[in-house]
Design goal:
mainly beta; 9-stranded antiparallel β-sheet; 11 strands
Length: 145
């Protein structure tokens, strides 16, 4: 999968995902998803900030490692996810699945896979948001790895 435009640090105020409120994007950065590209994604689940590294291949498949602080454990956790991309009428959907503890094959019992929606509307406004199966939503910042 190749995305011709650059990906800036994006923000989206999410409420109802069927009708997101989009904020305009500032100057684009020089991030583009070509071949196996790594981008850093920053998003949150409530007050807990998640830092992810997404590797996406030309074929639309990839993987992501997410690090976040677990208040229950009192320490940082790291989870690996499988990612696949889908073209939808609303934009490009990145679908996460199979959350496992990083560096293992052991499934994480509580981590809800992250999904991302990348869209450029008819007026050129860009947005990037995340949502999971537990209905947690967040805007996403994108930077080079």
């Amino acid at each position: 999968m190749t995305i011709a435009s650059s990906l800036p640090a994006w923000s989206l105020t999410t409420g109802d995902l069927r009708a997101p409120t989009v904020k305009p994007i500032a100057a684009p950065s020089k991030i583009a998803l070509n071949r196996t590209t790594c981008v850093r994604l920053t998003f949150s689940n409530g007050p807990i900030v998640h830092a992810g590294k997404l590797w996406l291949n030309d074929n639309g498949m990839g993987r992501m490692t997410v690090k976040y602080f677990s208040p229950d454990l009192g320490r940082q956790e790291s989870v690996d996810l499988t990612i696949r991309s889908e073209n939808t009428p609303q934009g490009i959907l990145l679908v996460g699945s199979n959350p496992i503890y990083s560096g293992t094959r052991r499934r994480h019992p509580n981590y809800s896979p992250d999904n991302f929606l990348l869209r450029i509307d008819e007026n050129g406004r860009r947005s990037f948001s995340t949502f999971d199966l537990n209905r947690n939503t967040s805007s996403v910042e994108v930077n080079a790895c």
